[in-house]
Known about the structure:
Blueprint (H helix, E strand, L loop, with lengths): L2 H4 L13 E7 L2 E7 L5 H8 L18 E4 L2 E4 L12 E3 L1 H4 L7 H8 L9 H16 L19 H7 L10 H12 L5
Parallel strand pairs: 1-5
Antiparallel strand pairs: 1-2, 3-4, 3-5
Helix pairs in contact: 4-7
Amino acid sequence: xxxxxxxxxxxxxxxxxxxxxxxxxxxxxxxxxxxxxxxxxxxxxxxxxxxxxxxxxxxxxxxxxxxxxxxxxxxxxxxxxxxxxxxxxxxxxxxxxxxxxxxxxxxxxxxxxxxxxxxxxxxxxxxxxxxxxxxxxxxxxxxxxxxxxxxxxxxxxxxxxxxxxxxxxxxxxxxxxxxxxxxxxxxxx
Length: 189
């Protein structure tokens, strides 16, 4: 007997999809969840695990407010499903540092006033950490002057290009670039 004959609604007709059991490693801790398979990683973090640092901005991957690190690579968590990350290591802003022991990038953002309202700041910081790992791995960007060079020169233009997926509505960009540049140069900001 079909769903229409019984009056039951199927998943495509407004009904509930069966839940998927997944395990993620979030900020160093194993987390077991049962989620609708259509649940974005962003919603799993915010709604299921109550990690509110990762922000929902545009929900279309255009603003970067939801940026987290997956296996040390930055991604927009609104564009990926939680079930796709079974067993993956997820690091959110909460996992980078503690209030009394900030991650160096968090400290640089504070010291350089790299935030205004603060809404985009968690995504900016996670993206900056991931971006510096990409530079260390030798990944060129559109702004990289010499892609065959053994080391990428992290100019302000290079930083701006690599961070272009993270929007700050308050326009704290010069301070964000200064914070990242200070960390990249290995000295105090």
